[in-house]
Amino acid sequence: MVELAAHLSDEVFPPLPVRQWVFSLPKRLRPFLPHDSSLTTALLGILLRAIRTLLHKRCPTAPTHPQLGAVSFLHRLGCQSAKSRCC
Questions:
Q1: Are 44 and 34 in contact (CB under 8 A)?
Q2: What pLDDT score was predicted for residue 79?
Q3: CA atoms of 23 and 40, how far apart (whole Å)
Q4: How far does Cα 70 stand from its chain's mean position?
Q5: What gap in Å lies between CA 31 and CA 39, rounded to an integer?
Q6: pTM recorded for the entire structure
Q7: Among 31, 71, 72, 78, which one is least packed by beta carbons within 10 Å?
């Protein structure tokens, strides 16, 4: 993971400020995500739309249709591998 973070910061992201957001789901919803990629995609879309709206409200002088760049990673605490079934 450290190598990937170094690659993103050195080769992918432009030399601009970067902000990290962490999104956590209630435990009762977590078991559904590993098995339903459309649900995961929909939740990520909602999260990105909420972040974009928040940033636009905080900076009203920004362009009316700014573009938001994002890299997302799903992390399941307690999982030994990406294919293991964790709740």
A1: no
A2: 56
A3: 12
A4: 7
A5: 11
A6: 0.69
A7: 78
pLDDT at 83 over 60: no
Q: What is the mean pLDDT of residues 47-53?
A: 89
Q: What is the mean pLDDT of the chain?
A: 81
CA distance 41 to 33: 9
Helix (H, G, I), strand (E, B) or coil at 79: coil
**Residue whose structure tokens are 């799903």:** 74
Q: If you average pLDDT over residues 52-69, what whole number do you get?
A: 83
Token pair, residue 18, equals: 């970067």
Residue entry with tokens 């962490």: 22
Using CA atoms, how far residue 31 sits from 20, 47, 68, 76, 77, in Å, is 24, 19, 29, 10, 12
Query: Are the C-beta atoms of residues 85 and 34 closer than 8 Å to each other?
Result: yes
Q: What radius of gyration, in Å, describes the C-alpha atoms of the chain?
A: 16
